[in-house]
Every structure is written in structure tokens, then in C-alpha cells.
Specification:
- The protein has 5 helices and no strands.
- With 160 residues, the protein is mostly helical.
- The protein has one domain.
- The longest helix has 36 residues, at 4-39.
- It is elongated.
- 26% of the residues are buried.
């Protein structure tokens, strides 16, 4: 039988590992997406301009989205700011998902302004992908908040 204190430490360690994996997945996703958008900035900007929901603000959005993705990645790297980064990741994924739902329900022309391999997904596949990451964000929030409450906040993430 495992002593209760050791059992709690094992559970805390598992939660920390799961949170690290979730943070690493978001970092990979956001850095990849931001770099893809910035490398082919003109195409990204034009595609945003073709969106019936974003036409008027496409120039701003074309800079804001990759900037936010990079900023959120930086928040996720540091354990001190990871919870804020997870909230931001969750919020961004909800916004991306809401945009997909709105554009597919209320527009006949649906431009894809995604970069890299994500542009090869259908809108339904993209919505499923976003839903999975949204749920991962929610799980990460609960696990990280629990770690913060219990004082298990580490100075550096274990995946670095």
C-alpha cells in the first residue's frame, strides 16, 4: 500500500506532466500557426480581407492574431504565467471555433486564412480540431489551477 503523502505527490506529478504536455501542444500549435501566417503574410492578409466578417479590420487582424499566438506561447513557457496562458489559449480557441461556426452558417463564400497543414482541413475537420484543443485548454486550466492552489507552482516548466 502506498502511503497517502506519497500517493498525493504521484497524483500531483501526473497532473504537472499532463499540464506540461498540454502547454507544449499549444506552444507548438501557436508558434507553428504564427510562423506560417507571417511567412506568407500577404496571402494571409488577402484571405482575411475576403472574409465577410473581417473585411473592414483584416489589416489589424492579420497582425494581431500571430502576435497573440506568440504572446500566448511565451506565457505558456513560464510556469508562473502558465494559467494565464491556458486561459488565453482556451479563449482564442473558442473565438476561432465561433468564427468557423459563424462563417459556415452565415456565409456562402468561405475563405481559409489558416496556414500550413491546417489549410488542408475541411471546415468540419477544423472545427473538430479546434474543439479538441478547446477541451485541452479547459483541462489544462483545471489542472494548473489545482497545482497553483496546492503550491506546486514550479519556477520552470519540466518540458524545457
Amino acid at each position: 500500500m502506498i502511503p497517502p503523502l506519497l500517493h498525493r505527490k504521484k497524483i500531483s506529478m501526473r497532473k504537472a506532466i499532463i499540464t506540461d504536455i498540454i502547454a507544449a501542444l499549444f506552444i507548438f500549435l501557436f508558434v507553428y500557426a504564427a510562423i506560417s501566417k507571417l511567412i506568407d503574410y500577404q496571402k494571409f492578409r488577402v484571405q482575411l480581407g475576403q472574409s465577410p466578417l473581417l473585411t473592414a479590420i483584416a489589416g489589424w487582424v492579420a497582425w494581431i492574431i500571430p502576435s497573440m499566438e506568440i504572446l500566448i506561447s511565451l506565457l505558456l513557457i513560464t510556469a508562473r504565467f502558465r494559467l494565464i496562458g491556458l486561459y488565453a489559449s482556451f479563449t482564442l480557441m473558442v473565438m476561432f471555433s465561433a468564427y468557423i461556426v459563424a462563417i459556415t452558417k452565415f456565409s456562402e463564400f468561405i475563405p481559409c486564412s489558416c496556414g500550413g497543414v491546417l489549410q488542408n482541413m475541411s471546415w468540419n475537420q477544423h472545427l473538430v480540431f479546434n474543439t479538441v484543443f478547446t477541451l485541452l485548454g479547459l483541462i489544462g486550466i483545471f489542472l494548473q489551477a489545482d497545482q497553483n492552489i496546492k503550491g506546486n507552482l514550479r519556477a520552470t516548466p519540466s518540458f524545457l
